[in-house]
Amino acid sequence: MTTQRTTARHSSARRLATTAAAVAATLALAACGAEGSKPSDGHGGADGDPGTGHLHGLGLDPADGTVYAAGHFGVFRLADGEATRIADRHQDTMGFTVTGPGTFLGSGHPAMDDPEATSPHLGLIRSTDAGRTWTTVSAQGKADFHSLQPAGEVLYGYDSQSRRVWSSADGGRTWRFGAEEDVADLAAHPSRPQEVWTTGGEGLKRSTDGGRTFTAVPQAPALVAVDRPEADGFVGLAPDGTVLASGDGLTWSEEGALPEGAEPTVLHAASPARLLAADTDSRVYSSRDGGSSWELLYAPDGIG
Fold it and tell me: Of 37, 42, 278, 288, which has the fewest Cβ atoms less than 10 A away?
């Protein structure tokens, strides 16, 4: 597949204060749907393979720089314009993060045809071989984490079942239950592990007590996704694809935009400059300049 690069469109027509309703509508397109998923959801090919399904997580393996994408039908390695399913596993991976070389955390649901499945919810699972095998860490049958965010020795997760922000100080083996919130994405940083930010239908919120309580961030733009690649730096995506940056989470500036027509659902900031994003059509984009320009890494068959 031929890659393409799109330069930022700095336009005053971009509305940074997009309504929370627009965020909610975008998020609904990427909502959990393990029981209702169909092969066509993954933009599958003629061979019957369902494809990736809607994408819910992206990560960059520090071992070799490989980009991974997690979706309704597995975890995939992205290279040369192709998405290769790891170990032929079709699990519905709703939460996903890379925590070290070849080390992933995930959550979601087992594959619909998995004969060994004992529960519809995977809880927290962990892989130390780049997704080839997974082991259960905790909360099997209880939690369906839609967002997982490490912050040094603290791990945060948003559980769609309890609708609460959970936190763990021991790698996810045990959990403390925090505030009930409407969460699409979590952002945190190792140097400030007790400070966690959320974005969702109620806008951007901040907690300074490890997720026990949250307060709204005044005048913050509506964001589909947010990440914190450094202690004093945020990156966010607005529903229309605008890339926003902030030093304190309070004031934001426009840095660029995804290609025309892309409706974002996922953002991962490996660093302030190195960004990954996915849209509602399961396309994956990469930026190496903080969102000013984007390269198309992967698009399902039939989608340019």
Answer: 288
Question: Residue 103 — φ and ψ, nearest 5°?
Answer: -115, 120
d(CA 131, CA 71): 13
Residue 23: which H helix or E strand, with range? helix 20-29
Closest CA to 259 of 236, 283, 275, 235: 283
CA-based end-to-end distance of the chain: 9
Q: Which residue has the tokens 């993060």?
A: 97
Which residues, at least 6 apart from 47, have a Cβ–Cβ distance to it below 8 Å?
Answer: none
Q: CA-CA distance, 227 to 210, in Å (whole number)?
A: 17
CA distance 216 to 248: 14
b/e per residue, 44-76, with b = 16+ CB within 10 A?
Answer: beeeeebbbbbbbbbbbbeeeeebbbbbbbbbb
Bridge partner list, 207: 196
pLDDT tens string for the chain (304 positions)?
433 434 333 333 344 444 444 444 444 444 444 443 333 344 565 567 899 999 999 999 999 999 999 999 999 999 999 999 999 999 999 999 999 999 999 999 999 888 788 889 999 999 999 999 999 999 999 999 999 999 999 999 999 999 999 999 999 999 999 999 999 999 999 999 999 999 999 999 999 999 999 999 999 999 999 999 999 999 999 999 999 999 999 999 999 999 999 999 999 999 999 999 999 999 999 999 999 999 999 999 878 6
**For every residue of 272-302, which 3-state class applies, written as one string?**
CCCEEEEECCCCEEEECCCCCEEEEEECCCC
Handedness of CA 270, 274, 279, 282 (dihedral sign): negative
pTM of the model: 0.88
Q: Are 96 and 15 in contact (CB under 8 A)?
A: no
Q: How far apart are CA 245 and CA 254, in angstroms?
A: 7
